[in-house]
């Protein structure tokens, strides 16, 4: 045992009237919701990077967090893993997620970095064998180091493309070895700052071929998990090629990957794209590419991705409603891609941030499940589109434009607008919140 989380108890469900801070009020892992345990619905994951690698900086200031495992040695990397699994045990978290740079120190060469990664994968494998928590997904950090300043797969330098390929291959191997259920690609630098020095077609073609190579390698090694792309519109790149779910789907279709790749959707990224979280989830479900989510929130008065823990169950309930409508997760889960504030210095702050986030999501899930089970909202939805089930309406879709136009002339159609009942449905939704 390390000393970092000493005197912090394991978090247990104590109900809404719990008086202790260190208790779940709404998240009861064994509570059955719509025929499934709550833990199996939510599939919570802890983000290794924000919880254990982030030093507390922001765009205007540097490190505020002092952690005993901060440093570049393998001994400190192992200490970080020890602390991480202690926190996973305290929370009872079923999953975690990592970038390669989170779990191993950067080497002077690729070969050294890979040796460090391989050694830490073995160490994490031992941890997973002795603890409940398993790997939800792995990914590669191809945005922090200066080599990635002009992108990875989209870099104008083919040597960087090769380095990216080697990096992803190593991390897919690591993810598979640890039993990860997904592999994520977040293209933080896969975009451009100015068209003055950018060949858009070349960069898109290279990105598409890179993703095809990832999928080909997945099948070659027999990886059974999902390949996920995480959309984001901007920050750090001014124009990113994976702007939102719809853009990603168009990209996948262009390169014949729409049946091979799904999306990992982040709430903060959805907002930066001008959408709501539920819109992006619903869009992904409609297009058949919903995979997983990164759960967080933005400060709506700030212009960047602040990655705060969720604390508004009413807001998250709409997102979980769309997840339940889509049939829930398969290999995906609810990853807390969220960090404590840079003024929150204590070990207790890190634990309680997750406790609050898990409770918020659990409460949201129960609201969403109650609404779905009642069928009230879906009954309104079905009623609104019911006339499309008639033979005349279906014939318009199978026939030509002339057939639809002929109906207007033959039947003297003069459509009468029908209320969308938005306010009534918002009131209905609030009944369940």
Automatic annotation (TrEMBL):
Its EC number is 5.3.1.5. It is an enzyme of class 5 (isomerase). Belongs to the xylose isomerase family. The keyword Lyase does not apply. Mg(2+) 1 binds at residues 230, 266, 294, 337. This is Xylose isomerase. Homotetramer. Its cofactor is Mg(2+). The keyword Magnesium applies. The active site is at 99, 102. Mg(2+) 2 binds at residues 266, 269, 305, 307. GO terms for biological process: D-xylose metabolic process. GO terms for cellular component: cytoplasm. InterPro entries: Xyl_isomerase-like_sf, Xylose_isom_bac, Xylose_isomerase. Binds 2 magnesium ions per subunit. GO terms for molecular function: magnesium ion binding; xylose isomerase activity. It is found in: Cytoplasm. SUPFAM superfamilies: Xylose isomerase-like. Keywords: Carbohydrate metabolism, Cytoplasm, Isomerase, Magnesium, Metal-binding, Xylose metabolism. It comes from Pseudotabrizicola alkalilacus. Its main location: cytoplasm.
């Amino acid at each position: 045992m390390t000393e970092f989380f000493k005197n912090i108890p394991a978090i247990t469900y104590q109900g809404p009237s719990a008086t202790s801070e260190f208790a779940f009020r709404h998240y009861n892992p064994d509570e059955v919701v719509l025929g499934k345990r709550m833990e199996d619905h939510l599939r919570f994951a802890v983000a290794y990077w924000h919880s254990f690698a982030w030093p507390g900086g922001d765009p205007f200031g540097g490190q505020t967090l002092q952690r005993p495992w901060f440093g570049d040695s393998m001994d400190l990397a192992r200490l970080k893993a020890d602390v991480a699994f202690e926190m996973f045990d305290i929370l009872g978290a079923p999953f975690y997620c990592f970038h390669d740079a989170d779990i191993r120190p950067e080497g002077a060469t690729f070969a050294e970095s890979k040796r460090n990664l391989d050694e830490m994968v073995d160490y994490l494998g031992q941890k997973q064998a002795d603890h409940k928590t398993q790997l939800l997904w792995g990914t590669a950090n191809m945005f922090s180091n200066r080599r990635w300043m002009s992108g990875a797969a989209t870099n104008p330098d083919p040597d960087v493309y090769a380095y990216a390929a080697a990096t992803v291959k190593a991390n897919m191997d690591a993810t598979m070895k640890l039993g990860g259920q997904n592999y994520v690609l977040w293209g933080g630098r896969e975009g451009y700052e100015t068209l003055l020095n950018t060949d858009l077609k070349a960069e898109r073609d290279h990105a598409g071929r890179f993703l095809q190579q990832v999928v080909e390698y997945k099948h070659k090694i027999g990886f059974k998990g999902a390949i996920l792309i995480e959309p984001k519109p901007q920050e750090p790149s001014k124009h990113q090629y994976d702007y939102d779910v719809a853009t990603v789907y168009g990209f996948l279709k262009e390169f014949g990957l729409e049946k091979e790749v799904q999306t990992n959707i982040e709430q903060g990224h959805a907002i930066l794209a001008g959408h709501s979280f539920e819109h992006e989830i619903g869009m992904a479900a409609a297009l058949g590419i919903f995979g997983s989510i990164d759960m967080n929130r933005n400060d709506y008065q700030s212009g960047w991705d602040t990655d705060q823990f969720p604390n508004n169950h009413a807001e998250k309930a709409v997102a979980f409603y769309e997840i339940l409508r889509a049939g829930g997760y398969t290999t995906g889960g609810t990853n807390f891609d969220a960090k404590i504030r840079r003024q929150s210095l204590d070990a207790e702050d890190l634990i309680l941030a997750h406790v609050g986030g898990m409770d918020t999501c659990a409460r949201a899930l129960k609201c969403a499940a109650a609404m779905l089970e009642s069928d009230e909202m879906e009954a309104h939805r079905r009623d609104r589109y019911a006339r499309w089930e008639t033979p005349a309406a279906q014939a318009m879709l199978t026939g030509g434009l002339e057939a639809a136009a002929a109906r207007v002339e033959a039947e003297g159609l003069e459509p009468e607008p029908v209320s969308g009942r938005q306010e009534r449905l918002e009131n209905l939704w609030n009944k369940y919140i």
